[in-house]
Design goal:
- The structure holds three protein chains of three kinds.
- Chain A is mostly helical.
- Chain A is built from 13 helices and no strands.
- Chain A is flat and about 80 Å long.
- By secondary structure, chain B is an alpha/beta fold.
- Chain B has two domains: about 220 residues, D-Maltodextrin-Binding Protein, domain 2, CATH 3.40.190; about 190 residues, D-Maltodextrin-Binding Protein, domain 2 (3-Layer(aba) Sandwich).
- In chain B, strands 1, 2, 3, 6, 11 and 12 form a six-stranded mixed sheet that branches. Chain B has a four-stranded mixed sheet with strand order 8-9-7-10, sandwiched between helices.
- In chain B, strand 1, helix 4 and strand 2 form a beta-alpha-beta unit.
- Chain B is globular, with a radius of gyration of 25 Å.
- Chain C is mostly helical.
- In chain C, helix 12 packs antiparallel against helix 13.
- Chain C is globular and about 70 Å long.
- The two termini of chain C are about 35 Å apart.
- The chains are: A mainly alpha, B alpha/beta, C mainly alpha.
- At the A-C interface, helix 1, helix 2, helix 4, helix 5 and helix 6 of A face helix 1, helix 4, helix 5, helix 6 and helix 7 of C.
C-alpha cells in the first residue's frame, strides 16, 4: 500500500530539465518504488512506439541497400549498394520532379492555410452570439476524412456535374469550361483548394488556442496608450502568438510534405506526372511496382527530410523563444 | 535504449488489465508463422472446395457463375468458391501478389495475359506443360505470353484484341491511314452536331494506355522494342496521340484520364464516330436499343505494313501452393472446353481462346464473332517479361506525360528506355 | 476605442456603453467575413447532401439546381444493399474505438508516470515521445506493410490500430502529462490515505478528475483513426474488412460509370458522426489544443 510520502515524492510537473536531487535509488526505499512504478507505467507506451517504428525502420534501411523485389526471385535479396538511390537521380526518373512538386505544394499550401487560418482565428476569437455554432461549422471540414474532402472537391471541380464550372459560367467569369483535373496547372489549383478547405480550420484551432492564453489586460493597457488595432496586432498579438504559430507551422509543414491521399483520390498524380509527390512515388514503388528496395530508399529520403524540417523548426523556435 | 533496459514490468503493472491487453496485442503481431510447405495434394475425386480468383460483374459474372454451376454438376465432389477481384487490373495484380506472397487461399487464378511470366518467375504458379493442354489449339500470340522460359504456365481462356469501332452512318468507308481516320472524324463532327468528339480512346495512366499505344504504333510501323524505343515511327505514334487531343481536336482533353469504360459510354451514348475498344463492345453495342447505325470494327489502320491490335485476354493459372491441384486442372479444363467458351462468348461477349470454338455453332448464336476475326489476325503482344508490370508503369508514365504536354515524344521515349534499364531484374 | 469592449466577455461589461450599440464597420466586416467562411465550409456539404438524394436519372439529366430536385433514398439503399456499406462503417467504428481505448489507457499510464514519478531518464523519454510525435509515419506505410506481411498480420484490424497508435500516443501522452501535473497532489494523497494503491488511484481518482483532458485526447484519437485512408489502403485487402473511407473510394464506380450519388450517400454517412462530434465538442477541441500547444 502506498503512503502519503510516496505520493509526495512524485514529481510535481513534467519538467524536462534533469533534476540533480534524483541521485541514486536506495533499494527498497520509497523513491525506488516510485521509480519502478514510473518505469512500469511508461513501458507499454515506449514498447509500442519503439516496436511499431524501430523494427520497420531498420528493416527499411536494410531493404533500401538491397534489391527487395519478391516477385523477381533471381535478384531478390541481393546487395544493391547505392543502386536504389542512384535510380532516383537517373535520366528520366520522376524523383526530382516529385521532390519539386512536394516542396511547392508544401510551401504554397502552408502559406495559404496559415494566412487564412490566422484571419479565421482572429475573427473567431472575439465573442459573439452563436460563436460555438459558427466555430463548429468552420471546424467540420478539418474533422472529416480526407477521402470526403477529396471526393467532394473532385465532384465540385467536375466539368459536367460539378459546381465550380457551373458557378463560373453563371457569373460570366472566365474558366467556366475548364476540365480542372486534366490540366497540369489547374489540377494544382483544385488540389490546393481541397487541401486548404480541410486544413485551414486546423491552423485556426491551434491559433485560437494561442489567442486564448494571451491575457486581455495587455490589450487594455495598449488601448489606454492609444495603440491602433493594427499596431496592437503587430506588437502584441503576433509576437505572443508565435508559439502557437510555430506549432501550426510544424504540424502543417510535415503533413503537407507527406501529402498522399488527397492526390491519390483527386488527380492520381496526373495529368501525366504533374502532381506526383514523394509520398505518391513511395506508395507507387511499394504497392504498384512491389519494389521494396526503391520504395525503401524513397521512404528513407522522406524520413530524413522530415526530420531535417522538424529539426530546423525546433531550432528556429528555440532561437526566437 | 537505456530507458528500455531499466523499465521493469513491476508487480503493479503485471496485475493490470492493460498488460493483458498488451500481451494479447503483441501476441497477435508476434504470431509469426511462415507460409510453410505445400500441403498434401487432394485427389480429384476427394470432397473439396477450390477457390477461384476472378473478376467481372454483370454479364461476365453471370457467365462465370453459369460455368461453375455446370462444373459442379459434372464434379459433385468439388465446390468452387469465387474470390472476386477488384475491377481495375492494377488492383487485381496487387491483390493477387499479396495473396501469393501470403501463400494461401488461392487455387485457380484468372489473370491478364501479361502476368504469367511474372508469376512463373516468382514461383507462384504451377508448370502446366504436362497437365494435358494442347498448345496448338490456341492463338500463337496468346500461348507465347502464357509461357515462361518456353514452358506453359497459363491456359488461354479468352482472347482480346483492341480495334477501332466506327459508325457506318457517319463513316462510309473504313479509313486506311491514321490521317484519314482523323479527317473522317473531323468531317463526322461537322456533319452531326450530336457528336462531342470524333475519336474516343483511353489515355489514362494505366495499362489500357499501353494497349492503345501498341495499336497506334502499328499505324506508323513502330515497335515496342524496349532496347530501341526512341525511333521515328514510335515518335510519330506518340505525336499522333497528343495531336488527336491538342491539335486535331477529335479527342477531348478528358480522354487523357479516360479508361475503357469512359470510351464505352462515349461510344454507346452516340457521342463519337470512332472508338478504340475491345470485343466486348461489339456484343454490348449490338444489344443497344438506341443503336442508330451499323458498326464496323477494324484494326487501327496502318500506312506502314501490317496493323497492330493489342493482344489482351485472360489466362487461367493454378497456384503452386494449392492443395487441390488435380481438381484445379479439371476446373481449368472445364472452363477452357469449347462448349464452355462458346457459352461465355454468347453471354459475355468474351472471344474464346480456343481456335476450334470458332465454328458454325458460335457464329449461329453470335455472328459478329466472324467479323471480329479480321482484328484477331493482327494481334501484337505486349513485351513478355517477369518485370512487365514495372515496364508497363514506365510506359504509362511516358504516354501520360506526353499527353499532358509535359514532355515531347522523343524525350519521353528516351527517358522511358533509360528507366526500363533501371528496373531491378530487367534483362533485354 | 472603448466600444470594442462590447464584444469582450462579460467581465468587461462595465466598460460597455449601451447607446453605442449601433452597427459598426468592424463588426459588419467580421460578420461578412465569418458568413463567407461558414458558407465556404458548409456549401460543399450541402452540395453532396442534395446530390446523394438524386436518382441516377436525375444525374443523367445533369441538373445543377441548388435546390434539391428529388428526395430519393435509392443511392443510400444501393450503398447498403449492393456494397454492404454498413459493414465498412462498423469496421471503422471498431478500429477507431479500439485505437481510442488503447490510446487512453496506455497514454494515461505513461502521462502519469511522466508527471508524477521520479523515475530516471524522464527527459529522455519525453524527448523520445516528442520525436515519435514528429516521426513521419506516412513515410513508413511501406515498411510497416512489409513488417505486417512478415508476421502474417496483413488484412487485420490490428495493423491499422497499431499504426494509428504511433500518431495518437505521443499527442495523448503530452496532453495527459500536462493535465495530470495540474491536478493538486492532495487529491491523490486523499485516495492513498483511503487505502488505494497508487496504480488504482490513477484510474479511480486521477483520470476521472482529468476527464476534460482525457476526453480531448480521446476525441482527437478517434478523429485520427476514423479518418485514415492511406494505411487502410495499404493494409486491408478483403472488401468486407475495408474501413468506410476505403469503401468510399471503391463504391459507386462500376466498370462503366461513376455514380456520384452513391459516393455522396456514403460520404454523408461517414460525415454525420464526425460532424456531431465537432458540434458537441468544439470547445473541448480548442481547449485541448490550447494546453497542448502552449506548454
Amino acid at each position: 500500500m502506498a503512503t502519503v510520502d510516496e505520493v509526495r515524492g512524485g514529481a510535481p510537473a513534467p519538467d524536462p530539465r534533469p533534476r540533480k536531487k534524483s541521485a541514486k535509488p536506495r533499494r527498497g526505499t520509497l523513491l525506488g518504488q516510485d521509480r519502478r512504478l514510473g518505469y512500469g507505467l511508461t513501458a507499454p507506451a515506449i514498447v509500442l512506439l519503439l516496436g511499431i517504428t524501430a523494427y520497420p525502420l531498420v528493416y527499411n534501411i536494410w531493404n533500401s541497400f538491397h534489391y527487395a523485389v519478391p516477385d523477381i526471385p533471381f535478384i531478390n535479396g541481393k546487395l544493391a549498394g547505392l543502386a536504389n538511390f542512384r535510380r532516383m537521380f537517373s535520366v528520366g526518373s520522376t524523383f526530382m520532379p516529385a521532390l519539386l512538386h512536394t516542396v511547392v505544394f508544401t510551401v504554397v499550401s502552408v502559406v495559404i492555410e496559415v494566412a487564412i487560418g490566422l484571419v479565421l482565428a482572429l475573427a473567431l476569437n472575439k465573442s459573439f452570439r452563436g460563436r460555438g455554432l459558427v466555430r463548429a461549422a468552420v471546424f467540420i471540414p478539418w474533422a472529416v476524412p480526407t477521402v470526403v474532402s477529396a471526393e467532394v472537391w473532385k465532384e465540385m471541380f467536375d466539368p459536367q456535374q460539378g459546381f465550380v464550372d457551373y458557378a463560373l459560367r453563371l457569373l460570366h467569369l472566365p474558366g467556366g469550361t475548364t476540365t480542372w483535373l486534366a490540366n497540369t496547372d489547374t489540377s494544382w489549383v483544385a488540389l490546393f483548394i481541397a487541401d486548404a478547405w480541410k486544413n485551414t480550420p486546423f491552423v485556426a484551432i491551434i491559433l485560437i488556442g494561442g489567442l486564448q492564453v494571451i491575457p486581455a489586460e495587455i490589450y487594455e493597457a495598449a488601448r489606454i496608450d492609444g495603440a491602433s488595432p493594427w499596431r496592437q496586432f503587430r506588437r502584441l498579438t503576433l509576437p505572443l502568438l508565435k508559439p502557437a504559430l510555430m506549432v501550426a507551422l510544424i504540424f502543417r509543414t510535415l503533413s503537407a510534405f507527406l501529402v498522399f491521399d488527397v492526390i491519390y483520390i483527386m488527380s492520381n498524380g496526373g495529368p501525366g506526372t504533374s502532381t506526383e509527390t514523394l509520398a505518391y512515388l513511395d506508395f507507387n514503388a511499394f504497392h504498384v511496382d512491389n519494389d521494396y528496395g526503391y520504395g525503401g530508399a524513397i521512404s528513407l529520403v522522406l524520413i530524413v527530410l522530415c526530420l531535417l524540417i522538424a529539426g530546423a523548426y525546433t531550432r528556429i523556435f528555440r532561437e526566437r523563444a | 535504449m537505456t530507458v528500455l533496459s531499466k523499465a521493469q514490468p513491476g508487480r503493479l503493472a503485471r496485475n493490470a488489465a492493460y498488460t493483458a491487453a498488451l500481451a494479447a496485442l503483441l501476441g497477435t503481431a508476434a504470431a509469426c508463422s511462415s507460409s510453410g510447405t505445400p500441403a498434401a495434394q487432394a485427389s480429384a475425386n476427394a470432397q473439396q472446395t477450390i477457390v477461384f480468383a476472378t473478376h467481372g460483374l454483370g454479364a461476365e459474372g453471370q457467365a462465370t457463375n453459369a460455368a461453375i454451376a455446370g462444373f459442379e454438376k459434372q464434379y459433385p465432389n468439388i465446390k468452387v468458391q469465387v474470390f472476386n477481384l477488384d475491377a481495375s487490373s492494377t488492383n487485381q495484380l496487387t491483390q493477387l501478389e499479396q495473396r501469393f506472397q501470403a501463400g494461401t487461399g488461392l487455387d485457380v487464378v484468372d489473370g491478364d495475359v501479361t502476368w504469367a511470366p511474372q508469376f512463373a518467375a516468382a514461383g507462384y504458379i504451377k508448370n502446366l506443360s504436362s497437365a494435358g493442354f494442347d498448345t496448338s489449339q490456341y492463338f500463337p500470340g496468346q500461348v507465347a505470353s502464357a509461357q515462361y522460359n518456353g514452358t506453359l504456365y497459363g491456359v488461354p481462356w479468352y482472347i482480346n484484341a483492341e480495334g477501332v469501332y466506327y459508325r457506318t452512318d457517319l463513316v462510309k468507308t473504313a479509313p486506311t491511314s491514321a490521317t484519314e481516320l482523323v479527317s473522317d472524324a473531323q468531317a463526322a463532327m461537322k456533319s452531326d452536331s450530336a457528336l462531342k468528339e470524333g475519336f474516343a480512346w483511353e489515355g489514362d495512366k494505366y495499362e489500357g494506355a499501353v494497349c492503345a499505344f501498341i495499336d497506334f504504333l502499328g499505324g506508323f510501323g513502330g515497335k515496342l522494342d524496349l532496347s530501341n524505343l526512341n525511333t521515328a515511327a514510335n515518335q510519330q505514334a506518340l505525336q499522333f496521340m497528343y495531336d488527336t487531343i491538342h491539335k486535331d481536336a477529335v479527342t477531348p482533353q478528358a480522354a487523357s484520364s479516360w479508361q475503357e469504360s469512359n470510351v464505352q459510354s462515349a461510344w454507346e451514348s452516340g457521342q463519337t464516330a470512332f472508338a478504340l475498344n475491345w470485343p466486348y463492345e461489339y456484343a454490348s453495342t449490338l444489344k443497344l436499343a438506341s443503336l442508330k447505325s451499323d458498326i464496323g470494327w477494324i484494326p487501327f489502320p496502318s500506312t506502314a505494313g501490317t496493323p497492330a491490335a493489342a493482344l489482351g485476354g485472360d489466362d487461367l493459372m493454378v497456384a503452386s501452393k494449392s492443395a487441390h491441384q488435380a481438381a484445379d486442372v479439371e476446373f481449368v479444363k472445364y472452363l477452357t472446353s469449347v462448349a464452355a467458351e462458346q457459352q461465355r462468348a454468347q453471354t459475355a461477349g468474351d472471344p474464346p481462346g480456343d481456335k476450334s470454338a470458332y465454328n458454325d455453332t458460335l457464329y449461329a448464336a453470335a455472328p459478329y464473332f466472324k467479323a471480329e476475326q479480321a482484328v484477331f489476325a493482327d494481334t501484337v503482344s505486349r513485351p513478355s517479361s517477369p518485370v512487365y508490370p514495372q515496364i508497363s508503369e514506365v510506359l504509362q508514365t511516358m504516354i501520360s506525360s506526353v499527353l499532358a504536354g509535359q514532355s515531347g515524344p522523343s524525350a519521353a521515349l528516351s527517358s522511358a528506355q533509360s528507366q526500363i534499364q533501371q528496373i531491378p531484374g530487367y534483362t533485354a | 476605442m472603448s466600444t470594442l469592449t462590447i464584444t469582450q466577455d462579460g467581465r468587461s461589461a462595465q466598460f460597455t456603453v449601451p447607446r453605442r450599440r449601433s452597427v459598426r464597420p468592424a463588426s459588419v466586416g467580421r460578420t461578412v467575413l465569418l458568413s463567407l467562411f461558414v458558407l465556404v465550409s458548409l456549401f460543399p456539404f450541402y452540395w453532396i447532401v442534395i446530390t446523394s438524394f438524386k436518382t441516377n436519372a436525375d444525374l443523367a439529366r445533369g441538373t445543377h439546381s441548388l435546390l434539391p430536385t428529388s428526395w430519393s433514398w435509392s443511392a443510400y439503399k444501393a450503398d447498403f444493399s449492393q456494397y454492404d456499406y454498413w459493414h465498412n462503417v462498423l469496421n471503422s467504428a471498431i478500429v477507431a474505438v479500439s485505437t481510442t481505448a488503447i490510446t487512453i489507457v496506455v497514454a494515461s499510464a505513461a502521462g502519469y508516470a511522466l508527471a508524477r514519478t521520479r523515475m530516471r531518464g524522464r527527459p529522455i523519454m519525453l524527448g523520445f515521445i516528442l520525436v515519435a510525435g514528429f516521426f513521419p509515419v506516412m513515410a513508413m506505410v511501406g515498411p510497416l506493410f512489409l513488417t505486417f506481411t512478415h508476421v502474417n498480420a496483413i488484412d487485420s484490424f490490428w495493423t491499422l490500430i497499431l499504426s494509428y497508435l504511433v500518431y495518437t500516443l505521443p499527442i495523448a501522452i503530452w496532453f495527459l502529462a500536462n493535465f495530470f501535473s495540474q491536478i493538486p497532489v492532495e487529491i491523490e494523497e486523499a485516495a492513498v490515505v483511503d487505502g488505494l494503491t497508487r496504480f488504482r488511484a490513477l484510474f479511480r481518482v486521477i483520470v476521472p478528475v482529468a476527464m476534460p483532458g482525457v476526453l480531448t485526447a480521446a476525441i482527437l484519437s478517434f478523429i485520427l483513426a476514423w479518418n485514415d485512408f492511406t494505411f487502410a489502403l495499404s493494409f486491408m485487402q478483403t472488401p468486407s474488412k475495408y474501413t468506410a473511407p476505403l469503401a468510399i473510394n471503391n463504391l459507386g464506380h462500376s466498370q462503366f460509370q461513376v455514380f456520384p450519388n452513391m459516393i455522396d450517400a456514403a460520404v454523408v454517412v461517414v460525415t454525420i458522426p464526425i460532424a456531431l462530434l465537432v458540434l458537441m465538442a468544439q470547445r473541448r477541441i480548442v481547449s485541448g489544443f490550447t494546453s497542448g500547444s502552449t506548454k
